[in-house]
Amino acid sequence: xxxxxxxxxxxxxxxxxxxxxxxxxxxxxxxxxxxxxxxxxxxxxxxxxxxxxxxxxxxxxxxxxxxxxxxxxxxxxxxxxxxxxxxxxxxxxxxxxxxxxxxxxxxxxxxxxxxxxxxxxxxxxxxxxxxxxxxxxxxxxxxxxxxxxxxxxxxxxxxxxxxxxxxxxxxxxxxxxxxxxxxxxxxxxxxxxxxxxxxxxxxxxxxxxxxxxxxxxxxxxxxxxxxxxxxxxxxxxxxxxxxxxxxxxxxxxxxxxxxxxxxxxxxxxxxxxxxxxxxxxxxxxxxxxxxxxxxxxxxxxxxxxxxxxxxxxxxxxxxxxxxxxxxxxxxxxxxxxxxxxxxxxxxxxxxxxxxxxxxxxxxxxxxxxxxxxx
Length: 374
Description:
This protein is an all-alpha fold. The protein has helices at residues 2-10, 15-38, 44-72, 75-128, 144-160, 162-180, 186-193, 198-221, 228-249, 253-265, 267-281, 287-323, 325-332, 338-372.
């Protein structure tokens, strides 16, 4: 919910300046953590407090960057740029745990914090020297009443555009389903079905990152002659169908690796085209508030999904597995992890159906429009 307040701030300040301020304060929190390590005063409450403060400024930074890239890049460049972002996210997902573990055991936490501070300084210097196109900034001062008015304004603006309303509802459902599985239960699924084989789980996570990398490259290279909405629904449909079902029905590590790869490979296609639609439909001076409103609504369903996933497995699917163990063994090979595998089947099929329904609605709308013009 803090994102709604941030959205109001973003539309009233230069994005470059806001990112630099957030960068400085995040770096300052890292410096405080370094000093605490040196003084041997580190404890759990202090780490939680610093993470909370750093998280707030990271939210400001990320939201500002999200709006700033819509200003810097033209429509033709924007999808390719988002493909590059997905590529870099995949590289980070793939290499961060490996590099982090290597550095921790070889140079220690204090030196890692120093590297963290240095990277913030380097990034800030690069940003400071960047030439940013002129921004349209709101001149009205911010207060609680303005924040509430901005929130109502965002609701009304989105209501006017049916395409955006549909996308918010669609991604809320996607985040609900992914929260039920990928963000909470993919590790227990693999560990239960492999008798706690951490190596296989590590490779599954690696293939998730690899999917983002190759997906991001593909988005930057390929161009499709169909509507952006269709690309979104088709890509997410394949992610659910191939990702969730391969992970659910897989009986060996190769199938799980393929499931992880396909689950993430199609996401950059969806993210890039979604970002393009929102950039195209929303005026520059309103993007901070409206993007924050969108992000808040879409992200609320993920923690709900994480809670629901655990409850469904524990209180519903576990009983189904116990009462139908022969069928579970027939379809999944064994009953270990069977309840979680059932949940992946449930989200995979339901997610695919939601995508198919959304796609058919677009096809129907286009057909009616074509007939009316003949």
